[in-house]
Amino acid sequence: MPRIYIETFGCQMNEADSQYIADRAAAAGYDIAVKPEEANVLVLNTCTVRDNAERRAYGRMNHFKVLKEADPDVRLVVMGCLAEQDRDRMQHLAPHVDAVFGTKELVELGDRLSEWRPSLADLAPDDDDASERALIMPLGGSADAVTDAFSHLRGFVTVQRGCSYYCTFCIVPHVRGRFDHRPMREILDEIGSHVAAGAREVMLVGQTVNAWKDPATGEDFGDLCTAAAALPGLERLTFISPHPKDFTEKIIADLASVPQLNARVHLPLQSGSDAMLRRMNRKYTRAQFEEKVALIHRYLPTWAITTDIIVGFPGESDDDFEATLDYVKTGVFANAFMFIYSIRRGTPAARWEQVPADVSSARFARLVEAQNAATRAYHDRKIGTTVRCLIQGPSKKDATRLAAKTLDNVTVIAPMPPDYDETLYAREPWLDIAVETAHVWGCTGTILRRAERFADAGGAVARPVISLL
Ligand code: SF4
User: Fold this and answer.
1) Domain 3-136 class, CATH top level
2) Is the sign of the CA dihedral 342, 343, 344, 347 positive or negative?
């Protein structure tokens, strides 16, 4: 059987798109490859949100050139935002790429995989081929859409694509187009199929997810979550990534009446300075952002708020930066994705005078230090408590431990119980973990119980036998 290898850069939207391509490929008769050297078709799902992501994608295309040189039958496909943005340029920079599919051409890519399937049937590389290819150059990389015993526990459902807000730093509206909202019925059906396949948690994904409106009825994001909550068997629901402007009091009040929602919300601040927010075209002031935070605290008092912050945006003065830093120091955010501004071709901010790199780096270091202290304090508060987490599987850094995520998205690592068995723990994936230590990255603890369903009390896990000799 031919094999397809998929590697994804960027956001959850890209992850959801990669999953769609993997599902289409599997339906067409492909196996999902874990390593690039084992595959007939290599798919790079690219991102342009930062310069670094773009350079890594081109670097990866060059790595894969050696596989095509070793075996001209291997096909290299580029999809995602860079494919949309650089369609013509890519032909010069990476002429060995066989096909390019933009963000609105997922269905066409799925169709192309089906067309290729018969001609690839006899060409699947065997283990010797794969070893030979691996010897040419270590390719590394981490494959996406590779299913393991726990993959089905989390489902991703795209509810809207594109964005019409045109923040001056962002390439998304240029490469993904304007808002395009899926009908509620389609979304609910897809959530239902994930639940039927065993998902314990479903994440609603969209570039500005809470701007979603049903194209026919005008129902809003609060209505969508309320309707999803009524689906039989849905245990947990979560969403990413909302825009502060689109959180009305009505939507937040609706979320408060959905018991399945995970207690977390990602609320991208970007800057704590009004002057910067205006230049970024963020469509809210600092005071309006704080009003949204106050609404969340009022209706959803246990929820963790996380954020995105850009440092060194063109025109950012010391005072602008201090405004951001002061706000972060209040500890309002449980965690934050922090970035130094990176020029994106084709966006207004790319043409503006840039903040010197050393100034941005110094500000960034101060911001990270402040947020890390807040994050650590947030994690410290879990010590001595027992948290219910959804298993992820063996820890990537230490196979003797299990990794899991709390409802507020904190990673918890715990020693693997003696009765650990993949099938059993995939069937009973909710873990109660007694938290013992906290770090900036998450917490560690001991697994006490496991449960099949979120609402179940669960049964005790086996404990290690301690020798007193
Ligand atoms: S809201 Fe702004 S940052 Fe978010 S996708 Fe739209 S343009 Fe980009």
Assistant:
1) alpha beta
2) positive
Question: Is residue 333 predicted with pLDDT exceeding 70?
Answer: yes
Candidate CATH numbers 3.40.190.10, 3.40.50.1240, 3.40.309.10, 3.80.30.20; the one for domain 151-380: 3.80.30.20
Expressed in angstroms and rounded, the spacing between residue 364 Cα and the centre of ligand 1 is 21
| From 208, 209, 269, 341, mutation site for ligand 1 pocket: most ligand atoms within 8 A of C-beta | 208
C-alpha 446, offset from chain centre = 27
Q: Is 280 in the pocket of ligand 1 (CB under 6 A)?
A: no
Distance CA 255, CA 221 (A): 9
- Find all residues with CB under 8 Å of 345, minimum gap 6, and list them: 85, 171
Q: Cα of 25 to ligand 1 centre, how many Å?
A: 30
pTM of the model: 0.84
Q: Is 196 exposed, middle or buried (0-12, 13-18, 19+ CB in 10 A)?
A: exposed
Q: How far is CA 427 from CA 148, 285, 418, 430, 458, in A?
A: 13, 47, 17, 9, 12
Q: Note the pLDDT tens digit of each residue in 62-108.
A: 888 888 888 888 999 999 989 988 888 888 889 999 999 988 888 89
Sign of CA dihedral 346, 348, 353, 359: negative
Q: Would you say 98 and 77 are in contact if contact means Cβ atoms under 8 Å apart?
A: yes
Q: Is 167 in the pocket of ligand 1 (CB under 6 A)?
A: yes
Query: Which DSSP state fits 96?
Result: T
For strands 386-394 and 401-406, give the pairing.
Answer: antiparallel
Residue with tokens 């990669």: 18
Cα(223)–Cα(214) distance, rounded to whole angstroms?
9
Tens-digit pLDDT profile for residues 56-67? 899 989 888 888
Can you give the length of the chain in residues? 469
**Domain residue spans in the chain?**
3-136, 151-380, 386-460
Using DSSP, state whether 11 is helix, strand or coil.
Answer: coil
Query: Which atom of ligand 1 approaches the CA of 171 most closely?
Result: 8
Residue 278 has, within 13 A of its CA and on its CB side, a CA count of 6
Q: 79 near 44, Cβ under 8 Å?
A: yes
User: What fold characterizes domain 386-460?
Assistant: OB fold (Dihydrolipoamide Acetyltransferase, E2P) (2.40.50)
Alpha helices in 274-394 (DSSP H): 274-280, 286-299, 318-329, 357-380
For tokens 């969508």, the residue is: 224
CA distance 117 to 244: 45
Residue of minimum CA distance from atom 2 in ligand 1 = 167
The rounded Å distance from CA 163 to ligand 1 centre is: 6
Q: Parallel, antiparallel, or unpaired for β 442-451 and 459-460?
A: antiparallel
Q: What is the Cα–Cα distance from 169 to 1, expressed in whole angstroms?
A: 44
